[in-house]
Automatic annotation (TrEMBL):
Signal peptide start and end residues: none
Gene3D superfamilies: 3.40.630.30
Domain N-acetyltransferase: 47-192
PROSITE patterns (UniProt xref): GNAT
Organism: Rosenbergiella australiborealis
Record-given protein name: GNAT family N-acetyltransferase
Upper lineage: Bacteria, Pseudomonadati, Pseudomonadota, Gammaproteobacteria, Enterobacterales
Amino acid sequence: MTHYNQYQQPIGEPIENWQGAQRPAKKPLSGRYCRLEPINATKHGEDLYRAFAEAKDTRDWTYLLSGPFDQQGDYLTYLTHLETLNDPLHYAIIDLTTQRAIGSIALMRIDALQGVIEIGSVTYSSKLKRTRLATEAIILLLRYTLEDLGYRRVEWKCNALNQPSRAAALRLGFTYEGLFRQAMVVRGHNRDTTWFSIIDHDYPTLQAAYQRWLAPDNFDMQGQQRQKLSVLIAQQLAITTGL
């Protein structure tokens, strides 16, 4: 339905009683398999550095704006700085089985007035990649921002050449929105940036699929998924649309 103002110009749909969203607080977010804790150099630094150091090379840092860190002291200094920030707000990802930090992630570009926020700085160690914890960490942030804090839009942005990040966004149900050409210069190279989003109207369908995917009976004894998230999202969309 198209809405018009008094001049018969088309305008967007009204958002009644909009007061903005809440800013995220520095508090833990708990899931079934992992917990997100606001980053703390003393508490998480050694575990994170050791987890990242298990990689055979530094390719995991290619598309990030920080790192790699050759010395643990340099990494701890970096984390100490991150502790002081509210935007971006960095979290350590804790494996509930081992109680060890094995990756980090952030909420950033926080615009509470407009209800827009971004998930970024996704830094996963080999212990975290391709596990249910890796997916749950992002689902926890989606739940926190869209359900608890009242955001209308969650963004995902990445280097246009970062195929794993693009695939991750699409797998989670983010919608591709386009390419920002020559958006940045990173490490002396041009970066075109791809934009994705999930908006509040998308979320209920996605959340239902997320919960089905995260259910313990969707994983075998080795922790391998029985049903793909993409299949569950497609099934849930069919239920929602009646197709």
